[in-house]
Amino acid sequence: MLSDATILDISSWDGTISPSEFIAAAHAFAEKWKLRCRGLPIWSWICCRKTPFISSHEVDGYLSLEKLCILRSDKMEDHGIDDAGKEGLNCSENEECTDSAVLVHESCLEVHYYDLHVVYSSSYRVPVIYFRGYRSDGQPLVMDDIEKDIPANSAKVLMESKWTFMTEQEHPYLKWPWYTLHPCGTNEFMRLLFLIDVSLLEDRVAAEQYLTSWLSVVGQVAGLKVPLQMVDSTPPLTTS
Amino acid sequence: MAEGCSGSILQFAPFQSSVDEGFWHRLSSLKLNQLGIDESPISITGFYAPCTHPQVSNHLTLLSESLPPEEGEQSFVRDRSHSNRNRCAVPGILYNTNTIEGFHALDKQCLLREEAKKIWADIQSGAAEKDSALLSRFLLISFADLKKWSFHYWFAFPALVLDPPATLADLKPASDFLSLEEAESLSVACNEWRKSSATADVPYFLVTLGSNSRATIKHLSDWEACRHDIHKLLFGFYDPCHLPNNPGWPLRNFLGLIYSRWNLKSIRFLCYRENRGFADMGLSLIGEALISAPQEWRYEQHVPSSVGWELNRGKRLPRCITLSKSMDPIRLAVSAADLNLKLMRWRALPSLNLNILSATKCLLLGAGTLGCQVARMLMAWGVRKITLLDNGRVAMSNPLRQSLYTLDDCLNGGDYKATAAEKSLKRIFPAVEAEGVVMAIPMPGHPVSIEEENIVLEDCRRLHDLIASHDAVFLLTDTRESRWLPTLLCANANKITITAALGFDSFLVMRHGAGPFRPTQDAENALSSDMENMSLCDKNGGQRLGCYFCNDVVAPVDSVANRTLDQQCTVTRPGLAPIASALAVELLVGLLHHPLGIYAEGESASSNGTRSCEQPLGILPHQIRGSISQFSQMTLIGHSSNSCTACCSVVVSEYRKRGMDFVLQAVNEPTYLEDLTGLTELMKSASSFKLDWDDEAEIDGDEFVEI
Question: Which GO terms describe its cellular component (chain A) (predicted)?
Answer without folding.
Answer: cytosol
